[in-house]
Specification:
The complex is a heterodimer of chains A (about 450) and B (about 400).
Chain A (H helix, E strand, L loop, with lengths): L22 H14 L2 H4 L5 H10 L4 E3 L34 H28 L4 H9 L20 H14 L1 H20 L2 H12 L6 E4 L15 E5 L2 E11 L7 E8 L2 E8 L5 E5 L11 E10 L4 E2 L5 H35 L1 E2 L2 E2 L4 H29 L5 H26 L1 H4 L5 H8 L12
Parallel strand pairs in A: 2-5, 3-5
Antiparallel strand pairs in A: 1-7, 3-4, 4-8, 5-6, 6-9, 7-8, 10-11
Chain B lengths: L10 H24 L7 H14 L29 H15 L1 H5 L6 H9 L2 H6 L5 E4 L15 E5 L2 E12 L6 E7 L9 E7 L5 E6 L10 E12 L3 E2 L11 H35 L15 H28 L5 H26 L1 H4 L5 H7 L10 H13 L8
Parallel strand pairs in B: 1-4
Antiparallel strand pairs in B: 2-3, 3-7, 4-5, 5-8, 6-7
Helix pairs in contact in B: 1-3, 3-7, 3-8, 5-7, 7-8, 7-9, 7-11, 8-9, 9-11, 9-12
Classes of the chains: A alpha+beta (about 450), B alpha+beta (about 400).
């Protein structure tokens, strides 16, 4: 059976389908094409320095999947895998992180302040994370946070809470860079949670070694009202293996990734598949977006990609898949909390210093109450997210709690981003201040599926 | 270790409170909503039962007096997390208000005045006023949120203070055994001169003048009380009689750090009642939330319910946080006000939306949804309005004085 990938409609620049250009409109459109053509670039009419950035920042730039390492098959298919236990509940209501978690947060927090924040603006522009930031994230062990100790990772129990705290701390520096840093860990954690012996033995050593590959959990698809539980990407059984067809969207570091975990519909149930970037039929297309740009987002085009039996990660009943969707949303909630905290920390000194009508603008209730609401809703987002994370870590049902956190962080997170710009007025609208970036980044919550996972 | 579940040891307490709310408060809910100013006698038995539970310590210190902060002995510096009376109190109040807010506010010996006594009384007073049902009198006809500006005066005359003034909106003002009154020792010295006095009913010069007819919590009596040359023993002044201009309002205000989480808990309780019933009604109508699917792919009603539940969860956890901090002797003014602000507005939003979602079923008196939507409104007003909470949160976050941020 041959089918073509999901056709992706060409962008109409946000013009509704009922709106047709009239003759003058066509002329303007032609002019626009001419102005945008690459000929200008070939003639050297643009600065050379822009060129390097150009390809990643341009929508639709295509490349084959990265030809990376070969992951030599090891272990037994279906063999017993290593799993970490759930963390044990002590029966007390408590908002204090464990000592280990606190240490982790301190280290990552420093990384966020020292490395991510200073690099954020340029990375946003370049649609790429600087080597230095990525290297630093490897040094602190981000990719192996969810990997069992027995498999050379650092986790002795379920790490959803630690992962949440880490994502929050990173996003205080920058959301886009946080996603870039967390992307390989999402795949390593997925392998730890659902991989069998063969999958863990084949793929995890790369993540626990010195040369950690870029990797990504690809669950989003490009269409309105996308429902992660109903992917249009399909997997069909083919002998022992599978054939994948479809398009995934919002894939972090897509062009560099050597391994993807892809969501696809298998016989009526969504399932996770391990796809190596070198597989035939894998194409990557850049997908620069409103925000989270430092994560070098891309589309993953899967054209009749043939996979072996090793590819199916977890069950084929949709259980691992559902958990993956929930744990990814939880990660995005944590990112929203960290970014919203960055907004609050930034606007407080600004409104205290900014003078209007002879006094700081924060002396006015309309300004001060906006700050109060940011503080209130931010703490609410944090607590609701923590509850979901701690339930996940304890092995309790957490679908409801993740849904509530996701709803709250989507709504209130965006409101905080919006207010952050508003409080700075015109100064918030220009790139001299980071609030416009946080505004763009916070819109990602509620749109993104996958990408990160705690 | 981060854990936001109901603590193990309070689960029996919570389920007990839930049974009381279900089997005693709910059956009387509509009755006393309609018979405003009628004394809910059913509560006497309940109060006796609660006293019994407290004596046997089965209540884990929950209740209006549960907000008393035990002084930490400095040699016992254990870092271990505590789940104490503050948390027990908010958890049981949530359950009781899931039953009925008005009736909870009418619970004998569980008045806000009891919380004030628990918060600021010395040991001797604490013992002397034990078992008293105390209401709280702060607001005056000309002074609502601006409680530093009260005009009721207290003048020392021998061994007594002489009180003069009028207080309004005194919850349980008629039924209580005593009133905790805010009065100023010297209007010229501002907020620092405001002290609270315990005035037993029957003291000459104290008259209950009038009961209000209200939008909601009609089971609870709301009284106007006049003080005319009312003499109270000077030992009934709560806290220190000294006017410490530096400490200012802090003494009297400390009560609020303890009572605001309680009021937040009331809002969380009544909002849960609305959500649960509405969820049931919507299931009958064929609408159910799927937590795993994006809200925008579900029906508008399901999406709305999901959003309301998310706001509810936020209010609930902010309230638990404020109480948990009090139990662990962490300063919690900011968090108490955050909880009150979020729970107050969320309580109104949820109960009103639920009426809308349930249609005429929600609006008519056949169901309790319309009543809950009326009851909830006061919770965004008393113990500090939404706007006062925002002022407090803003001042804390911005590091501003009340002179800078008015």
């Amino acid at each position: 059976m041959v089918t073509t990938p999901t056709p992706v409609p060409k962008s109409r620049h946000g013009v509704a389908s009922s709106d047709r250009p009239d003759p003058i409109g066509f002329a303007v459109s032609m002019l626009n094409r001419l102005a945008g053509t690459e000929v200008l670039d070939r003639l050297g009419l643009r600065k050379q320095t822009e060129r390097a950035v150009f390809e990643t920042t341009r929508a639709g730039f295509r490349t084959l999947g990265k030809v990376g390492r070969t992951f030599g098959r090891k272990g037994r298919p279906g063999g017993s895998a290593v799993r970490v236990p759930s963390s044990a509940e002590k029966g007390l209501f408590d908002l204090t992180p464990t000592e280990d978690e606190q240490m982790l947060v301190d280290v990552v927090g420093e990384l966020a302040v020292e490395v991510l924040r200073p690099a954020a603006e340029e990375a946003d522009e370049a649609c790429a994370a600087p080597e230095e930031a990525l290297r630093a994230s490897l040094e602190v062990g981000l990719p192996i946070l969810g990997v069992p100790e027995e498999l050379e990772g650092i986790s002795t129990e379920r790490s959803a809470m630690a992962g949440t705290l880490v994502a929050e701390a990173l996003a205080k520096g920058d959301m886009g860079l946080a996603v870039a840093c967390l992307a390989p860990g999402a795949v390593a954690t997925a392998l730890s949670l659902w991989g069998d012996d063969e999958q863990q033995s084949t793929y995890l050593p790369a993540f626990t070694g010195d040369d950690v590959p870029a990797a990504a959990l690809a669950l989003t698809e490009p269409r309105p009202l996308f429902d992660a539980l109903q992917p249009q990407t399909t997997a069909t059984r083919d002998g022992d293996g599978f054939v994948l067809r479809g398009v995934k969207s919002m894939v972090p570091r897509a062009a560099d990734a050597e391994l993807f975990v892809v969501g696809a519909m298998l016989e009526g149930s969504p399932a996770l598949f391990l796809v190596e970037s070198s597989a035939e039929g894998v194409t990557v297309e850049s997908e620069p977006s409103m925000g989270v740009r430092a994560a070098a987002l891309g589309r993953l085009l899967l054209e009749d990609v043939e996979l072996g039996s090793i590819a199916l990660l977890g069950d084929d009943r949709g259980e691992a898949y559902r958990d993956a969707v929930r744990l990814a949303r939880l990660g995005w909630c944590a990112l929203a909390v960290g970014t919203a905290q960055a907004v609050l920390d930034y606007v407080i000194p600004y409104v205290n210093e900014r003078q209007a009508f002879g006094e700081p603008i924060s002396n006015r209730q309309s300004v001060a109450f906006m700050v109060a609401d940011i503080g209130i809703e931010l703490q609410a987002m944090r607590l609701v997210t923590y509850r979901a994370a701690s339930r996940a870590a304890q092995g309790k049902p957490f679908a409801r709690e993740v849904a509530l956190a996701h709803s709250l962080c989507t709504e209130k997170g965006m409101q905080i981003g919006n207010d952050g710009v508003q409080l700075l007025g015109g100064h918030g609208f220009v790139k001299e201040h980071p609030v416009e970036r946080w505004y763009r980044d916070l819109r990602a919550i509620g749109v993104m599926e996958g990408g990160v996972l705690v | 270790m981060i854990n936001l579940e109901t603590p193990q040891k309070f689960r029996p307490l919570v389920s007990q409170a839930h049974q009381v709310a279900m089997n005693l408060l709910r059956p009387n809910s509509r009755k006393y909503d309609q018979l405003e100013h009628e004394y809910p006698r059913e509560l006497d038995m309940l109060a006796a039962m609660i006293d019994g539970l407290s004596d046997s310590n089965a209540a884990s210190g929950a209740g209006a007096s549960g907000v008393r902060r035990e002084d930490g002995t400095s040699d016992r510096e254990d870092a271990a997390t505590r789940n104490g009376a503050n948390l027990a109190s908010v958890l049981s109040i949530m359950e009781m208000c899931w039953g009925d807010v008005g009736l909870l506010l009418s619970m004998p010996r569980q008045g806000l005045g009891n919380s004030a006594i628990a918060s600021v009384a010395n040991e001797e007073q604490h013992e002397r006023f034990d078992g008293l049902w105390a209401s709280m009198a702060i607001t005056e006809p000309g002074t609502g949120s601006d409680s530093a500006n009260i005009t009721t005066t207290a003048v020392l005359d021998g061994d007594h203070y002489v009180l003069n003034g009028e207080k309004i909106f005194v919850t349980a003002g008629q039924r209580s055994d005593a009133v905790v009154v805010w009065a100023t020792l010297d209007k010229g010295l501002g907020r620092a001169a405001i002290k609270s006095f315990v005035v037993p009913k029957g003291t000459p010069g104290l008259t209950v003048e009038r009961l209000e007819k209200k939008l909601g919590i009609r089971a609870s009596d709301t009284a106007t009380i006049r003080f005319e040359d009312c003499r109270v023993p000077k030992e009934n002044l709560l806290g220190s009689p000294e006017i410490d201009v530096k400490q200012g309002f802090a003494g009297a205000m400390a009560t609020f750090d303890n009572t605001r989480p309680l009021v937040a808990a009331m809002a969380v309780g009544v909002a849960r009642a609305s959500l649960e019933l509405t969820r049931d009604l919507l299931v009958e109508a064929g609408v159910e939330i799927d937590y795993d699917r994006p809200a925008q792919t579900q029906s508008a009603a399901a999406a709305r319910l999901l959003q309301l539940e998310a706001d509810w969860e936020a209010a609930y956890l902010l309230t638990l946080q404020a109480a948990w901090m009090a139990d662990n002797r962490k300063p919690n003014s900011l968090e108490a006000s955050m909880a009150k602000a979020k729970a107050g507005r969320t309580g109104s939003d949820i109960t009103l939306r639920c009426v809308e979602l349930a249609g005429s079923l929600g609006y008519s008196e056949h169901e309790l949804l319309e009543k809950w939507a009326r009851d909830s409104k006061i919770l965004d007003i008393f113990e500090g309005t939404q706007q006062i909470q925002q002022l407090i949160v803003a001042r804390r976050l911005l590091g501003k004085s009340s002179a800078e941020l008015k």
